[in-house]
Every structure is written in C-alpha cells, then in structure tokens.
Amino acid sequence: MSEKAIKKTKLLLLALLGVVIISTLVIWGCGTKGYDNPAAVSAAKYYANDATVNTMIDPATVNRWVTQGNKTDDGKRVVILDVFPNDTDTDSWFAGDSTLIKQQMITQYGGTLSPQYKMIDGLKNANLLGHIPGAIPQVSHAGYEVATRNDGPIETEHEVGTGAYIDQMLQKLGVNKDDVLVLTTSRYDYPGFCSARLFWTLYYWGFSRNNIKVLNGGNKAYAQAGFPLETGKVISTITPSTFSVTQLGQKHLDARISIGEMIQLVDSGATNQTTGSVVVLDTRQPPAAYYFLDQDNNGIPDAFEIPGYTMSKNSTEGLYFVRNSDGRHVTLSELLFKETTPARVAFSGSSNPPITLPNAFIGITAPAGPNPNGGVPLSFPLGNKAAAFEGIIKGAKVTKTGTYNITVPSLCKPDGVSYLDQAAMKSVFATAGIDGSKPIVVYCNSGALASIYYYALHEVCGFQNVKIYDGSWLEWANMAAYEPTDPTYVMNDDYTAYPSYPAPSPSVVFYAASNKYLEWDGTQFVDSFTKQPVNGLVKKGGALGGNTFWDTAHRSEHVMFRPLGSLTYTMLTSTPNSSIAFLYNNKTYSSLTDWAPIVTHPAYSGAGSEINNTDKAYTTPAGASSGSSGPAPFIPKGGGC
C-alpha cells in the first residue's frame, strides 16, 4: 500500500473514531437515562413493580422485620406507625392503659354499660392491649394528615392534609423516601379505619405502594399470632427528617373526588343505579330502617314502658332501665334481646332483615312507608357529625339491604379484624353488584370508614378505578339551601342496641318513632311515600341562604332534616319519671351536630375542585420545620374516625 493510501486510511479511521466518541457523548448526555436526568432513573426505581405489589403484610413478616432491627429482608429501614384518631390515645390505647381507655369509652359511648366499655377487660386479660415494639404513635386527626380545607363552596373539616402539612407530619416522624412504612393500630373500637386512611393519604401524595404496608388485622392480629405487644408510653427516639412529598416522582390525585365532581356525577345521571356509569357506595353503617312502636299513642315508645322496668339515665352509666324486682340496671340491648326467653325481639344474624316482625315493640320502614308487620327495608345510614339533613347521595348504594350485606364484618375473616383474601372479598362485593366494571366512589361520615372500603376494593380486590369522596357526608350534608318550617320532616332520635351484648357487634339502630322522608321530583320536594308536594313545610334557607346552585339536599334521596334550634318540638311533661322528661323528646336538638355553624361561599362560581388544583401545584417544599404546628386537632364525636 502506498504511503498516500496509508495516510488516507488513518484519516478515515480517525474520523470514524471521532464520530463514535461524539455519538457516545450525545447518547450519554442527552438520553432519558443519562446523568442529566437522575430524577427519571430514581422514579423508575422507586415505582418499580408498583402496579402489582401486595400492600398487605402479615404479622409474621412484621415480627421478622422487628427482630431484624426494623429492617426488611433486603435491608430497607422499617418505620411502624401505630395510627389512631386522638392525642389522648397515645396515653391510653398505644400505652395499653386499660384504666384510661375505660375513661375514654365512658365519655365517647355514653357510660359504663356500653359494650365498648365492657370489652376492655377482655382485651386486657388476653394481652391484646399495647403496641408493637418500636412503633411510633401517629395521631390521624391532629391537623397534619387531615385539615380544614375548601374545595370552593364550603370550608370542610377532615379533608386530606395539604402538602405542607404532610411534609411536617413525615418530618416529625423521621420518615425518609426509601423507608418502608408499616401501618397498624392499637385501637380496637375503630378497627382499621385510621390505618387505611393514612394508607390512602400517603398514596394520594405519591408514595410508592412498595413502601406503604398495612398490617392485616392490626395489633390484635399481631398479638393473636403469638407476638407480644409492649405496654407503657414507650416511644423510640426520633431523628426528624427533611423529606418532602415533592421529592416523589408522581402524585395519585385521582384517588380523590371533589365536591364539584360529585355534584357533576349526580346531575349527569351517572350515579343512577340502573342506567348510570358510576357506582357510588355510602359506607356508613349500619343502615337504619327499624323504629319503635307507640301503639297506645301516648308519645312514648312502648319499649320504654315495659312493665317492671323504669327508664333512667346518669352521667356514669348513660341510658338504662331499672329492673324493679331487684334494682339491677339493664341496658336497652338487654331489655330487648337478653332479659327474656324467648327474647322480646327476635334477632338472627344470618337473616336479612335480621329482626322477625311483627313484634310488639318494633316496626320497619319499607319503600311504601312505615310498616309494623315487616317487609323489605328502606334503610340508609345516619351521620354522626355536623349536618343539616340525613339521607344518601342520589343513586348511592348502602352497605346492607334486604338482598345483600357488605358491612365491615362481612369483609373480615372470623377474627373480625383481618381482611378477607381477594377471591372471598370479590365474592362479597359481587352480591351488591360491585365488580370493578364501573368506576367506584366511596364516602362515609368524614372519609375514614370509606378508606377501609377504598383499601378493600383497590388493594384487595384489585379494582383500579376507585376514588374517595373526601368531603363525605360532613361536607355534603352541610351544603343545604333548604330548611324545614315545622318538625314534620325532622328526624326522630335514634338509639343503638347490640343483640349480642356485651359484644359490640352486630348493632341495630332504632328510631324513637317512624320518620317522614323527602324526595326531589325535579322541581320540588315531595313526600317519599305519598309523592305529594310538601306545600310549605320546606323553605329556602340553610347554610347557603337559599342559593341552590351548590345545594345538595335536592341532590339526595330519602331526606329528613336534622332538628333545627329555631323550631319548637313537642315534649311530654307527664312521664313515668318526671325528672327525665327530656328523654321523651323524640326530636332532640344538639348545637354541636345539628345545623352547626359553618363557613360557606354560595356565590363561588368555580369547578369545586380547588383542593386538587392546590395539591397539583405543590411542587416546591413550603419550608415548614419539624417543629411547626398544624391546624387545631380534629376530635371525632364518636362512631368512627
């Protein structure tokens, strides 16, 4: 080869080498997996297998991680969060202090005769009180996980916490991005509510499902599996972190539905059970259809006038009946289900409806109206938070009817606290016509109980399109532009009884008398049973001042108003015990829960999804320190988180 040819070849090789080097640099520097896009690499790793991972964890695995020094099998740090609703639960339930727990049960459930009070000694004797060693207490209603927020037309408590508040919560807990969080609870009168709510909150803000685990059955299942719980207020030293949810690669804001979206679904007909495209499930329970008879028409339920018993009440025991033969204090549950053989009221947990009618003391409300002889129940649940009216969102299913039962106990294994497996869970929901073929929206009083159903449907069943209506009944039932003019369509008082007393489950709700309900016929309210207009018994007003644009009462079914303080209700003055005459006022007004003062914005003209907009825009940490305080604690008034 000539010298000229050799030089030409060398130049060609050098040129080719230059092309290779330049191409390599371009690929290295500009590719989506290169050093200039580490966020994409980090996110891909963090969310690997996120769509298929099992978020439920069993007690044996948690115990193994505890014995490994709070490390997973592949060496990740484990943070066990014991989640409960109130600050005081740290000293009581978390610490396993039965005396303090009993004091709470007296306050919350009305006295020492409540089944919730009576169950505590049994839990203590079975060594089921306390927390998993190394667990950190997490108060779910202390202003970080939830907050008072505004989707546009109304300020509502218990909405999902802002990004800044969630950052504060996680920093206080010392949580870092790659930690695996195990969510459990030491509180047994709220089985699984708060753990499921925290799971949903973390998922909403972008946590990988790889990194959030729910202990199936909570601390009770852990202890029953033979692993000891720790008692006392023993809390490990926490080193605050600087972690922010803005460090996560994505958010799952579509796990939540706003008030604006909920109204749009109702108005479009999407919630119609027959022709609609969405399943809406009201998870409050138990649905109520039974009422006490008053066959002598003296204004007092016959069940309160059983010969040989005198009704009474005090601050320690709550409502009870004195058995005149020996002075023993008997609960309403015992009076109806335990005091005689056969029982005064026959109950069967395997029947639906569960109470045999006709009965001397009980009637049932059917679609055609009150019926003392029985029939298919017209049942729907009651709220226990602040509200202007009761009912259900138009088109919503309830958790129990005469044909199916999907209440919480039906979602659990025989231990009453552990979720069913996927096949069994799907089978239960199928009885109610819920199979994941349509999007599902769940709600409850304040979004906590609904979280159990979100977890069961989304995580156990694997249905992908499941959302929580976060405002729930606490928001929906306060957006009223109508109010009653007299007590006709005001609800009667309700009483809860426990057929298996002193066991707290199952439970049955009885109204003091039969109620009248309202339906919206497209232009006006009509009586649910007669279908006749109510002719002035309802007027515009309410918290929205008569502005019906955001009104939810006319977008609901089976409406009855809560007692309104400005109305006069009949109160008997001649009773078997004149010192407790107030017990026979069947429409009792409470300023704490009935038409409570709220902040509304009736003139708001946006889409009603302001929280989504705010949370979507949260991309830069707010700079809150771990010592910052959140909003005022929200304390539930009983009946659920």
Automatic annotation (TrEMBL):
User: What name does this protein carry?
Assistant: Sulfurtransferase
Q: Which UniProt keywords apply?
A: Repeat, Transferase
Record SMART domains:
RHOD
Question: Rhodanese domain location, by residue?
Answer: 166-231, 402-481
Q: Where is the composition biased (Low complexity)?
A: 621-632
- Nucleotide-binding: is it a keyword of this entry? no
Q: Which GO terms describe its molecular function?
A: thiosulfate-cyanide sulfurtransferase activity
Residue span of region Disordered = 618-641
Annotated InterPro entries: Rhodanese-like_dom, Rhodanese-like_dom_sf, Thiosulphate_STrfase_CS, TST/MPST-like
